[in-house]
Amino acid sequence: MGIPAAFRWLSNKYPKIISPVIEDQPITLEDGSTIPVDTTRPNPNGEELDNLYLDMNGIVHPCSHPEDRPAPKDEEEMMLEVFRYTDRVVNMVRPRKILMIAVDGVAPRAKMNQQRSRRFRSAQDAKEKEEDKQELIKLLKQQNGGSLSAESLESVTKKAFDSNSITPGTPFMDILALSLRYWCQYKLNTDPGWAKLKVIISDATVPGEGEHKIMSFVRSQRASPDHDPNTRHVIYGLDADLIMLGLATHEPHFRVLREDVFFQEQKARLCKLCGQKGHDAQNCRGEEKKKDGEHDEKDKGVTLKPFIWLHVSVLREYLEVELSVSNLPFRFDVERAIDDWIFMCCFVGNDFLPHLPALEIREHGIDTLTKLWKDNLPVMGGYVTKDGHIDLERAQVILDGLAKLEDGIFKRRKEQEDRREANNKRRKLQNENNGRGGRQSGPSTPRINGHMNPSQGMALHPIASYPKPEKPLTHDMIVNRSTAPDANVANKSAASVLKAQLQSQKSLCTAKPADDPQESPTALGKRKASEIEEEGSSTTGTPGTTTPAPATEEGPVDEVRLWEDGYADRYYEKKFHKDPKDIEFRHSVARAYVEGLAWVLLYYFQGCPSWEWYYPYHYAPFAADFKDLAKMNITFEKGRTSRPFEQLMSVLPAASRHALPEVFHDLMLNPESPIIDFYPEDFKVDLNGKKMAWQGIALLPFIEMPRLLAAVQGKYPELSPEDSARNERGRDVLIFSEGHESLYDEVLTKFYSKRQGDSKFKLDPKKSDGLSGKVEKKDGYVPHGELKYPLERKAMPDLDYDRSVTVYYDFPQTSHTHKSMLLRGVKMPKPALTPSDVEIIRSKANRGGRGGYGRGGYDRGGYNGPGMSRGNQYGRSQNGYGRSDGHYQSRGPPPMPPPPGAPGFGIGVPPPPPPPNYYNNRPHDNYRGGYSGGYNQPRGPPPPQGPPGYQGYGGHGGQSYGRGRGGSGGYRDGRSYR
């Protein structure tokens, strides 16, 4: 769903959904040879898994421009990296039935807007790197006596791989498709663990985003009468939307596999410039790397990042408890409730719609909507969604409730920002007064046009006056920049690295204290937006190079001022350039947004409802602008799927035209081109109240598809046969080996024997081990031939005799919609939540869902009062201090100690008491506010005969108000927790 920081938020709130992957490693012998992992052995994770789905773009991107080592030199090295990474993933999952590899194909029009924004900004970053490169060449020549070796010059000026090439229709994607087919056939011939595996490859010529092609496959199999409802599914990918998609299948045995995004936080930091240990970036002298061993053999390779499981089944358990509403006038259906929760997640951000201004995931936006949903579910008379369709009248109820909260949300947000800024300034001033310029807590030094502003009081020196380094810069120093752990440091151009290195040397020679830990943002480089989002970064920091930031610490002027009266008028005037009195326009924006919600939900539950629909604005409306939704009649036309070159012309900037046939270049460059306005070289990025450029909104013109199609299709007659082939739609292929005897014999008999019949037939699930669908004979393919490695350098072997078979594959056609229900015969997983967990979840849910401290923590959100202690509550915090019960350990800072007297904490040592006024609590208040975020404020006792469940009152000691127990209190309507 593309929700920023969603994975971190989910794993913090629902800690038991995460567990580490247990992974066998190859054994290295003394002679340097290795014994590979035997995947025929039982899965070390304790459960055999059936189907593995790879969202392949999540593998191709990090392999083509990695963050922790130098980038591959060319496409062939990239393919080898893809093979190694994919092999590792398959080895740890060990699927027994199906491996599906899905590469992003042509996307729906609604997705192209986001792709266009990303690719234009990527090109702008590349342009800035090129400018850095030219400046670096001058610096290098001055540092080395006016000359530079040919090798060094080549290393600096070498052009980096353009990640925009990872788009359907480019030559790179052709190479990827050929390579993946070869590698899968090779593994089916050589790896015993693959013997009975069926491999489905959906490459970039097949329309659709990779993860949605996977979900279409899952839904198609689920609709088959032969489907096993207890199939164990695993999907690999980096997008948070995979979690929502897994929930939307209503297949309870579903896991998401991904790298551990918290691993980097624990990893020891190395120098950001040279990748060596023992010093940090500001103390880097650019010395040559010291060899560890005669041939540096003791320090080769990069530590493998661990992987983690996200268990959708456990998330379902959490949601079942949290979303439960008693005393409903209708039957509570957890499957329908989960669908409504997915719908509410759409409001905080996805790849197709901007999030509503009042909702941020870090501000508990989903919790806010969940509470509104629970409060209104009894009066709504039913659920908001059904099988991906929205009941607009009920959705109106939720939005009306949010509209009443908007003003308060904006004012609280401003108050929190002001407090944060004041704290940052206070810490900065304190550091200055203490005589140390430590790493700034406040906003980083601003940039102007991509360059750093000098700090106050810093003397500027001409380049010519730079002291020479102890050793001249060498070719080895330029190219040997391995293992830098920060995002994009190893992969950034040599220009950026060495320019920062020279600046570091200069700063060392200007009497900078050795203990000054301040790091130059230039040296650190820009970080991937996704990584910063996952870290839950606050909005402090340098806006980055993509957008010039103002030269003041206060950042850009916010002309809308959501916290002040009249914000709606200012918002539509400044963002939409509309008359504030034009109320009908606001409602039209809201109606378009509702169409978008309907489109997104259908996309996630049923498949793409329209290939041509898109949201035509850069900004979202306010909740107060949604009016008369019940009167809307939303329908979608399936429309036309774009061809690959049409998508490329829609999303690529002119700087990436090398990925397109030359006949299209003139359309992107010629001032007289009928579509030249689609390719601006410069464009505004509206930070929209944010601090970082990647958080801003690229204000690119929307593509007018009829005008683009007329221009692009006019060039089709000029295409070469090879280029025309790249513009055609492809098909999924199914590959399997003779080890799958029943399927192998059936296909060879029907396609390649004297008794062969039609070129297409329907699979028998009994012979295909449960796989449904149709297969078709592949044109020009003959089995048992030679398997040739498709790339030039022959880094992998050819095989004289290929024992695998390749056929075209079509998903089974279904006559009914995907139903939000468990299938008959399903056996639910063993519950992961204990009764104690359930009580805690209910307690937090009735406090608005904002409890919890870190990933797990104490009682995950609240202490129950001195009069009610619960045994091992603090000693077995399945993710906090104490024993971990075998679950994934807490990451990041440890939780604060529990209140005094909490039994079972850690190893039995009584913890210190909290400060009297910790987190806004007063000494006479209970501890819940102190340990769950400070929501308790002093208030008088409840009325003697007041309504049950006095709202928000936790209780003193062992007493409670309403009918709750102990200090934990009851439901706000007076019901007890149990």
TrEMBL record:
Keywords for the protein's UniProt record, in alphabetical order: Coiled coil, Exonuclease, Hydrolase, Metal-binding, mRNA processing, Nuclease, Nucleus, rRNA processing, Transcription, Transcription regulation, Transcription termination, Zinc, Zinc-finger
Chief localization: nucleus
Highest taxon above the source species: Eukaryota
Biased composition (Basic and acidic residues): 122-133, 413-424
Gene3D superfamilies named in the record: 1.25.40.1050, 3.40.50.12390
Feature: compositional bias, Gly residues: 848-865, 949-971
GO MF, any single term: 5'-3' RNA exonuclease activity
Family of the protein in this entry: Belongs to the 5'-3' exonuclease family. XRN2/RAT1 subfamily.
Function in brief: Possesses 5'->3' exoribonuclease activity. May promote termination of transcription by RNA polymerase II.
Name this protein carries in UniProt: 5'-3' exoribonuclease
